[in-house]
Automatic annotation (TrEMBL), chains A, B:
Its cofactor is Mn(2+); Fe(2+); Zn(2+). Binds 1 Mn(2+) or Fe(2+) ion per subunit. Binds 1 zinc ion per subunit. PANTHER family: FERRIC UPTAKE REGULATION PROTEIN, ZINC UPTAKE REGULATION PROTEIN. Zn(2+) binds at residues 87, 90, 121, 124. InterPro entries: FUR, WH-like_DNA-bd_sf, WH_DNA-bd_sf. Fe cation binds at residue 99. Keywords: Iron, Metal-binding, Zinc. GO terms for biological process: negative regulation of DNA-templated transcription; regulation of secondary metabolite biosynthetic process. GO terms for molecular function: DNA-binding transcription factor activity; transcription cis-regulatory region binding; zinc ion binding. The lineage of its organism: Bacteria, Pseudomonadati, Bacteroidota, Flavobacteriia, Flavobacteriales. Pfam families: FUR (PF01475). This is Uncharacterized protein.
Length: 126, 126
DNA sequence: TACACTAAAGCAACTTAGTTGCAATAATAC
DNA sequence: GTATTATTGCAACTAAGTTGCTTTAGTGTA
């Protein structure tokens, strides 16, 4: 295992994601930071956390990456195969407690999954 | 229904997607064009086709949109809830003939789904 | 065939998520 | 305290996708 260091900025990212109701984009995390942090730093912090299995991300329909803390994801299963929902109106991406039964694929070695359902959330239905 | 016109460039896009083994990015479609076409044009052709249900797209883990012809998708089901696979190495996205049983969601009105599995394809395993 | 109407295409400028290379900073070990 | 190097900052860049406006070319009608 690589040597790692504990830093204030990493802690802030964890705090922010811990208190988040939804997954967050890098932009949103930056805005939530109590101190000024460079965006490259946040990208790299999240990259490291993702490698360690501390966070996971989904690519929204909009092509942006949305991050969330891994709670049970990697503990109970080696893959986090739960569903996500993205609202077309507010763009928020939510982790949902539904798990998908992933089929065995013949010609592909599956390492990760991203299950995204898209539509309108309750808050945005008018 | 809006008035539409049949154009050579739209036909080329259909031809290219019909003969494609995998889903294609806009970049790939542009390269496959037998004549020079502006990228904005291709984006708009695909947008129109997607509205009509002629094509569907998946957002890859890389944040890029990958397009494919709709074959049975919208005929048999109102949503095309089949799985896609993206290879981390060659980035190719493939439509797979596996359908996902989508759960009823309480707080969300689902309109579309994007099921993506990520890993390494047979061709790229070394 | 000529003409009108306007959908579709082209073009250039722009937006923005994410990346890269390198220099500066600071956490940790000794 | 000092050395080591993981982490952060900075600036410049890449590339997907968008926007506003002009030009081109299908299609219906006379
Ligand atoms: Mn999740
Ligand atoms: Mn598909
Ligand atoms: Zn919403
Ligand atoms: Zn591959």
């Amino acid at each position: 295992m690589k040597k790692t260091r504990n830093t204030q900025k990493q802690d802030y990212v964890i705090d922010i994601l811990t208190n988040a109701k939804h997954t967050m984009s890098v932009e949103a995390i930056l805005k939530a930071m109590p101190i000024k942090v460079n965006k490259t730093t946040v990208y790299r912090i999240l990259e490291r956390f993702a490698e360690k299995g501390k966070v996971h991300f989904v690519t929204g329909e909009d092509g942006k990456a949305y991050y969330a803390l891994c709670n049970d994801c990697n503990v109970k299963h080696e893959m986090h195969n739960h569903i996500h929902f993205q609202c077309k109106s507010c763009k928020k991406v939510t982790c949902l407690p539904y798990e998908i039964e992933v089929p065995e694929l013949k010609d592909f070695e599956v390492q990760e999954t991203q299950f995204l359902m898209i539509g309108i959330c309750d808050m945005c239905i008018s």
